[in-house]
């Protein structure tokens, strides 16, 4: 079947169902960051393989919305199909709702179809409101399953495993008790969970169903006296099933969740508006009233998960040491041996993966390594491809953003280093590197009262570069899961509005950057954990928080413009480097230790 | 009539109307900061004269909610009445909704009465939702007017006057055109305005109906081809009425607005949810449907008003020079002559008022001067009273927060100065003063991209004191009107969540502080205006904003701990002082200029 044939097959079903348009989204029912191929409906119907896009098919048009990262790729991959590319990063590009409204304006019988599993409750309701404002009606219906019958990959069927309490730091029973207390406090008696990280965290289970995030494809419903995990029975060995039952977790088939919710006898059901899909919500609505649904964004479960306990934090510190050994070995290799043979961005990433894989408890990378050489470093979501990646030759700057999943924690680190003749480092590069570093340090050193939000602190990382009219388009810090998703909410450190305060135990990245298109990219990233600050003798009594730096890897001093650093900043860097050397040296051989020592010498 | 007799009279009417409780708020129908006595219903029914409070009367209880600023005063003034004080700043104090819900829990016939003129649309709807969640019903009814018949002050009846275009900088016609364009863009064709500052700004009228803010008591409705000012005809002389009519403004009686809205024939009516009262909204709802009301918070009008035009900013710079002369004279008098005779906080404030009153275009103070000597300075909303104010004796620190209304602009400034023997200044006081000053300077020097919100910048002012575990309970910066309210929205610089970005032409205060209860208060405040930053040679192209400092008054160098200041901060202070001296000296006599010169000598 060609893409155009698929579109034609869809139109037959649209006509049969009286639909004027059908929307196909590049998401899955679990609001996942990394999707299993089974759910790549958007790619199947368009031929576009990028990670972010939404297709709209009408009786005489087919369109694909995607952002500027994918313009080039989409242009190539849509060739030969009837799809028109909608460049959603362009200011004059209409949103899907705007386009539908102008195309079908006030034709009151117009029905737009979507698969409700592919929309969050909030996303669906927002679209519905926008469309109804112009007289259009949204209809929940899956028209892809009936036509994508041949060659559709199965839902991943990898076994789950129990994540031991010694890593998780809290028993399932204790977590369930806290969740039930939380539900009572909100006058609710049931919680529907669709997001895989949340399920993994709550039930202390992990798996290998998707790349980078060790989660298990499942749904979960917590009630007053029951907790049900909806998961394919082939994924659970008898021993693990018994363990889960022993913890009060009943097992039911994955797809049984829909019927289960249609018959749920709860007084008030809590669901996360951003993480639970509309299909589940519609099932709940068929058994309880609107008023008996508490749709919250974010759900308190997300907040609970984001607060790492002492065992999790201790585990992360261990994982950081493993990561530090890999990084130290990698950078030593890069400086001393690597360039004796041809290297590319991909061979560097592979080498780093190999060093990481030697680490205790390493299971996987926590995301695809970004290795950007010179101009490629300026492409924020750059992913090197074998046929087009850059060769590492001559002088230049390497941006390396990578991370590991270790049984005891998740890491994420970016370092920008100079490769080649130190004398060739341009002054502007040093200035930019130092502006980034100053912001990175200012955030790491922040002290702030309980209740502070990340968007209040963000300016600390931006202030120095803003003074020179330079900024970056990504967030300053994202939450990081514990042996789980490398990006988690609900708090973060960004300029965007976000009402979620920073909690004790939250782990964030601290990653300002500067990107000069066609020249180079700079980013410096550590992970930091939120802890209570020691009381100050002059304090007027509030509770203050501060960050503990978790990541253990030197910064490239060759790229620093020392004259731009204050004495406080120099002292911070020297202290950090002394700590890195102290912590990592015992895990290195003599040559590696000597290398690290020179890298950590005080300024 | 005693307070208890008033409460009894209210209960008779409550019974007649089937109400279980009645709420009386300390607000007016215009969401005013300074209220005319006519609307002081809460004070009349309770005997409590504080500016902030809400009374609840049931058949057998009478309660007054107020915050910690007024605990003492309320305790005194409620004596002898049946009122119970509800201390709303205490963590365990229920909100009014919580108290009503627990008192009348699920008695489905319970009706709670309120005067809808005293609630904003948003406030009313929020209370309604909270009460309905527990089965209670809110009923709009004014039960105070029928019983407060004797001795009730009239609505102020002072004449309005035309605010000349040479001060306003934009003709009424041009403003109305912009408002109508804005309405069209929102698919609306009518705008209801209740807030007096907004009416004064839009129609270029001013008055003297309330203290401190030169506004006129009125309502206004803007439609596609009509603009109606609802104002008592006795306030408008024939000449001004003709001027207004010439600008396309029709006049109708103040109270006619209610009937007018009941019969409005608009397609879609815009109202500010926080500034338009529920009574007006209910009138609109009787002529158009819910869907035909666009309740927005804030209304685009507020944003338009907050963007000062070039004439307004030029006027403010002139007003600042007048203010600077008064402040220089005052501080010189304080240092050289004042203490030769007995002085109190009040005599100082009076003297400052007298100096200001000598200034060109001065009309009034922009708020009641806060003069806090030593421990009184630590009381954030301190208002000295003749019977209890402090005498200025010995060594100490004076916090002086004051401002003026000038025809060409509004000022607001706080300086904290040492009085007495310089050698007696405690080290902690200097440290605190310098932490405040460093934050004040960091905000003044901020540079940030277009679209930035004030809560992103707030940490710049807080960062140095937070590092020592010290903070302040008030906002860092409020918007300031132009010859209008000294506090305006919608943008501000606070820790609170606020989605409104900073616009070019916004004027804010920059006023961090530190308060040591029982010892002293420190606050340092300038007004700053938002302007476009000059393009930086290294910029990657975004539009950057920065602040222009407007206020012209030296900081007390005796209170600075120079060792805590960076070279950049010292340079900023020296530049500021040089500019103050340059701008103000031409307006001073020789002695005053010599005094200012010593105060502005470089560090």
Task: Give the tags.
603 residues; six-stranded mixed β-sheet; homodimer; alpha+beta; 18 helices; 28 strands
Notes on the protein architecture:
Two copies of one chain form a homodimer. By secondary structure, chain A is α+β, with helices and mostly antiparallel strands. Chain A is 34% helix and 20% strand. Chain A has 18 helices and 28 strands. The first copy, chain A, has a six-stranded mixed beta sheet with strand order 4-3-2-1-5-6, with helices on both faces. Chain A has a six-stranded mixed beta sheet with strand order 12-11-10-8-13-14, with helices on both faces. Chain A has a four-stranded antiparallel beta sheet with strand order 21-28-27-24. In chain A, a hairpin with a 3-residue loop joins strand 25 and strand 26 (520-523). In chain A, helix 10 (256-262) packs parallel to helix 11 (278-285) and helix 15 runs antiparallel to helix 16 (454-466). The N and C termini of chain A lie far apart (64 Å). The model of chain A has no long low-confidence stretch (mean pLDDT 95).
């Amino acid at each position: 079947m060609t893409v155009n044939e698929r579109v034609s097959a869809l139109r037959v079903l649209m006509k049969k169902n009286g639909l004027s348009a059908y929307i196909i989204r590049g998401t899955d029912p679990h609001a996942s960051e990394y999707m299993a191929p089974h759910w790549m409906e958007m790619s199947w119907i368009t031929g576009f393989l990028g990670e972010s896009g939404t297709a709209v098919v009408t009786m005489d048009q087919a369109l694909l919305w995607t952002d500027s990262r994918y313009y080039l790729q989409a242009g190539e991959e849509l060739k030969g199909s009837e799809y028109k590319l909608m460049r959603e990063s362009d200011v004059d590009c209409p949103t899907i709702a705007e386009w539908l409204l102008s195309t079908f304006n006030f034709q009151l019988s117009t029905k737009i179809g979507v698969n409700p599993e592919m929309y969050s409750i909030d996303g669906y309701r927002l679209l519905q409101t926008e469309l109804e404002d112009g007289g259009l009606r949204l209809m929940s219906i899956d028209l892809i399953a009936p036509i994508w019958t041949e060659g559709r990959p199965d839902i991943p069927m990898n076994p789950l495993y129990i994540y031991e309490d010694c890593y998780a730091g809290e028993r399932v029973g204790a977590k369930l008790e806290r969740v039930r207390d939380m539900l009572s406090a909100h006058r609710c008696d049931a919680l529907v969970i669709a997001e895989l990280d949340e399920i993994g965290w709550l039930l202390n289970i992990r798996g290998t169903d998707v790349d980078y995030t060790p989660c298990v494809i499942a749904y979960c419903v917590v009630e007053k006296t029951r907790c049900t995990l909806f998961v394919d029975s082939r994924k659970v060995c008898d021993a693990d099933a018994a363990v889960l039952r022993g913890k009060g977790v009943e097992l039911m088939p994955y797809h049984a969740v829909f019927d289960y919710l249609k018959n749920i006898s709860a007084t008030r059901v809590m669901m996360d508006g951003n993480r639970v899909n509309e299909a589940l919500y519609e099932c709940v609505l068929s058994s309880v009233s609107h008023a008996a649904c508490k749709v919250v964004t974010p759900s308190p479960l997300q907040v609970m998960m984001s607060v790492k306990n002492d065992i999790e934090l201790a585990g992360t510190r261990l994982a950081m040491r493993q990561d530090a050994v890999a990084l130290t070995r990698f950078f030593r290799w890069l400086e001393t041996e690597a360039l004796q043979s041809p290297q590319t961005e991909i061979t560097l990433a592979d080498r780093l993966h190999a060093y990481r894989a030697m680490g205790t408890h390493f299971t996987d990378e926590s995301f695809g390594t970004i290795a950007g050489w010179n101009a490629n470093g300026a492409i924020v979501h750059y992913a090197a491809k074998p046929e087009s990646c850059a060769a590492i030759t001559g002088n230049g700057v390497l941006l390396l953003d990578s991370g590991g999943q270790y049984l005891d924690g998740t890491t994420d680190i970016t370092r920008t280093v100079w490769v080649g003749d130190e004398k060739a480092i341009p002054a502007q590069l040093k200035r930019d590197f130092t502006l980034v570093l100053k912001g990175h340090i200012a955030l790491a050193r922040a002290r702030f009262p309980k209740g502070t939000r990340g968007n209040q602190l963000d300016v600390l990382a931006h202030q120095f570069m803003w003074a020179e009219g330079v900024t970056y388009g990504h967030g300053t810090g994202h939450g990081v899961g514990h042996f789980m998703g490398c990006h988690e909410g609900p708090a973060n450190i960004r300029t965007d509005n976000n009402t979620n305060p920073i909690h004790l135990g939250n782990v964030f990245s601290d990653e300002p950057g500067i990107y000069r298109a066609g020249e180079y990219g700079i980013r410096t990233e550590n992970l930091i954990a939120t802890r209570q600050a020691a009381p100050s003798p002059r304090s007027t009594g509030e509770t203050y928080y501060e960050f503990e730096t978790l990541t253990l890897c030197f910064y490239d001093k060759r790229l620093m413009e020392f004259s731009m650093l204050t004495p406080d900043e120099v002292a911070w860097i020297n202290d950090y480097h002394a700590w890195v050397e102290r912590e990592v040296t015992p895990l290195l051989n003599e040559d590696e230790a000597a290398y690290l020592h020179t890298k950590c010498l005080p300024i």
